[in-house]
C-alpha cells in the first residue's frame, strides 16, 4: 500500500493502516519488531514525527507495544482490538 498525499486521511493514519494490515495479514507476527522510524521515513518519504505518530496510534489501539531503548513490537494477539 502506498501513501496517498491527496487523500484527506492524515498521513500518520495511512502509515498506521499499512502496518495494521501487515499485522492482520500475518506478514508481521506477535512479538515481531515493526519497521523502525528510520525505515518508515525512507520507505514512505515521511517526517520522523509522522512515523512516531503512526506508532503512537498503533500503541493506543493495542496493536503494538514499545519497549524503551529496544523498539516497538507487534503486541500479543490477546491485546489486539476486537475485529
TrEMBL record:
- Specify whether Transcription is a keyword of the entry: yes
Q: Which Pfam families does the UniProt record give?
A: GntR
Look up keyword Flavoprotein and say if it applies: no
Residue ranges of domain HTH gntR-type in the record: 9-77
Keywords per UniProt: DNA-binding, Transcription, Transcription regulation
Q: Which InterPro entries match?
A: Bact_HTH_transcr_reg, Tscrpt_reg_HTH_GntR, WH-like_DNA-bd_sf, WH_DNA-bd_sf
Could you tell me which Gene3D superfamilies the record lists for this protein? Winged helix-like DNA-binding domain superfamily/Winged helix DNA-binding domain (1.10.10.10)
Source taxon at top rank: Bacteria
Protein name stated in the entry: GntR family transcriptional regulator
Amino acid at each position: 500500500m502506498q501513501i496517498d498525499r491527496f487523500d484527506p486521511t492524515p498521513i500518520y493514519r495511512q502509515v498506521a493502516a499499512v502496518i495494521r494490515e501487515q499485522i492482520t495479514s500475518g506478514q508481521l507476527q506477535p512479538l515481531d519488531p515493526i519497521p523502525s522510524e528510520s525505515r518508515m521515513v525512507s520507505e514512505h518519504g515521511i517526517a520522523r514525527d509522522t512515523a512516531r505518530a503512526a506508532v503512537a496510534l498503533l500503541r493506543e489501539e493495542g496493536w503494538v507495544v514499545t519497549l524503551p531503548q529496544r523498539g516497538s513490537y507487534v503486541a500479543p494477539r490477546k491485546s489486539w482490538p476486537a475485529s
